[in-house]
Amino acid sequence: MNKALTIAGSDSGGGAGIQADLKTFQELEVFGMSAITAVTAQNTLGVHGVYPMTPEAIIQQIQAIGEDIGTDAVKTGMLFSSDIIEAVSEQVRKYRWENLVVDPVMIAKGGASLLQQEAIFAMKTYLLPLAKVITPNIPEAEVLTGLTIRSAEDKKEAALRLVELGVQTVVIKGGHDEDESESTDLLYDGREFHTFTNKRIQTKNTHGTGCTFSAALTAELAKGASVYDAVLTAKEFIQAAIEDGIEVGHGHGPTNHGAFRKKKELGNR
Ligand SMILES: Nc1ncnc2c1ncn2[C@@H]1O[C@H](COP(=O)(O)OP(=O)(O)O)[C@@H](O)[C@H]1O
Ligand SMILES: Cc1ncc(COP(=O)(O)OP(=O)(O)O)c(N)n1
Where is the Pyridoxamine kinase/Phosphomethylpyrimidine kinase domain (predicted)? Predict the structure, then answer.
């Protein structure tokens, strides 16, 4: 069985972070492992508390996996501080983990900060150059590039700038763009642009979409897919998960991580 490691924060509400990543890995038949960077007290209404782990605790979790089990792909999510980013980057380099997906998580849907402002330098300097793929949403791509992104052309310019930071492939996710009928993600690998467009689903249950999309991409890379094919599957996975979103809590409910598998099973009957 192929293996994937997520290095991310815990979401007590179960829709994003480590919980979303492990559910997604399992659904895509990849053995999931985790190194927890922070514990959040979180539900569908927002983030109520953030408790970062020490860099030592994170390093020990990563080493426990690196020294024994190994992994076919790695995903990073919430990293919170520059100390944590530096520690994680060093471990990724040490184990020569090349299938690295960096989801540069900064702000949760409710507005809570999941990355300190001063950590953006460390993210750009130490972590992004190690990434095979980075998956910023539009506000994250704006912070990383200093650009304002409104149009498809702006997205392309941002992708060009991100590749200049040493990243191999950029996928700018379109959940936050202004198009009310479609959600388009842009892939740029330093040579070609590709777009992935799906119908925009009108729902409030979108908590954890970014984590889930990046986790599906990571799981597919762990199984040996090309980046292009991994994004295709991740897009199908997130579309099914949002379509079948779960109505729990009083705010933004989670997506349904089991929906892609159920849809495939129905299709095979
Ligand atoms: N309402 C929606 N309908 C269809 N796809 C969506 C919707 N919202 C987000 N997506 C897709 O979900 C993935 C995550 O995107 P996004 O919401 O931008 O990430 P994040 O959660 O990091 O802000 C992308 O593939 C995006 O196109
Ligand atoms: C612990 C933790 N990590 C990441 C996020 C952000 O998740 P995302 O998929 O971007 O979804 P929203 O929070 O924006 O709905 C998180 N919330 N918690």
Answer: 11-256
Q: Where are the alpha helices (DSSP H) in 72-186?
A: 82-94, 120-122, 138-145, 152-164
Whether 253 and 13 have beta carbons less than 8 Å apart is answered as: no
Q: pTM for the complete prediction?
A: 0.98
> Is the pLDDT confidence value at 36 over 90?
yes
**Among 103, 114, 209, 244, residue to substitute to test ligand 1 (most atoms within 8 Å of Cβ):** 209
Q: Which residues of 234-253 are buried (b: 16+ CB within 10 A; e: fewer)?
A: bbbbbbbbbbbbbeeeeebb
Tell me the average pLDDT of the chain.
97
Which of 213, 233, 252 is the pocket-test mutation for ligand 1 (most atoms within 8 Å of CB)? 213
Give pLDDT, residue 164: 94
Range 88-97 burial, b when 16+ CB lie within 10 A, else e: bbebbeebeb
Q: Residue 267 C-alpha to ligand 2 middle, in angstroms?
A: 31
Active-site residue (options: 9, 17, 66, 210) = 210
The CATH number of 3-142+205-268 is 3.40.1190.20
- The number of the ligand 1 atom at minimal distance from the alpha carbon of 238 is 12
Predicted confidence (pLDDT) per residue in 232-261, tens digit? 999 999 999 999 999 999 999 999 999 999
- Residue the block writes with tokens 């762990």: 222
> How many of the other CB atoms lie within 10 Å of CB of 67?
9
Longest C-alpha distance within the chain, in Å?
Answer: 52
